[in-house]
Design brief:
By secondary structure, the chain is of the alpha+beta class. It contains 4 helices and 13 strands. The strands form 4 sheets. It has a 5-stranded mixed sheet, with no helix packed on it. A 4-stranded antiparallel sheet has the order 2-12-9-10. It has a two-stranded antiparallel sheet with strand order 1-13. A hairpin with a 2-residue loop joins strand 5 (44-45) and strand 6. The radius of gyration is 17 Å and the shape is globular. The N and C termini lie far apart (40 Å).
């Protein structure tokens, strides 16, 4: 896959990519005991993660602020971890900010590439590899510009949502 843009930095240079690991049924529960266990796209509701399973044997941990991405089966769903430590299954990758970059800007960049990523995942069970994500080349302007881009996209999205509601 070639996602090259004019200039930019490979994702692996600025962010850490954490790949999940499945647990056996004996290692998780629906009783709220332990830390949340995120198993896949079924946990993604809109841009939020719904917590329905827990584990007392966490092994691969996502932390608050990570950008979560579904990478097997239903691919390309994204949500921020706004709930704290949780174990992620094989169907999830967590992108962790290694520096103080704007993670909302990262999500916008990932959203830009998501269709190309989905098209590259042409297997019996669609999936994307670590290299597909790690080798993405992202434009990384100054932090204040990243914030302005996010602010403008949110503003335009809100305007479009208002227009859509007024037309229905």
């Amino acid at each position: 896959m070639n996602y090259q843009t004019d200039g930019g930095v490979r994702l692996k240079e600025l962010w850490e990519l954490i790949s999940g690991r499945d647990l056996s049924p004996s290692e998780y529960n629906a009783d709220g005991v332990g830390v949340p266990y995120i198993t896949g796209a079924s946990n993604f509701v809109g841009s939020k993660v719904e917590l329905v399973r827990w584990t007392t044997s966490p092994q691969v941990i996502t932390e608050i602020g990570d950008l979560l991405l579904t990478c097997k089966g239903t691919i390309g769903e994204m949500a921020f971890n706004d709930f704290g430590s949780a174990h992620i299954a094989r169907q999830i990758m967590a992108i962790r900010n290694k520096f103080t970059l704007n993670t909302e800007y990262l999500a916008l960049c990932m959203g830009f590439y998501i269709n190309a990523i989905k098209n590259a995942a042409k297997e019996l069970i669609p999936g994307i590899s670590r290299e597909d994500i790690l080798n993405l080349i992202l434009p990384v302007p100054a932090l204040n510009y990243q914030a302005k881009v996010v602010e403008r996209v949110v503003e335009v999205t809100n305007i479009l949502s208002s227009l859509e509601k007024s037309l229905s």
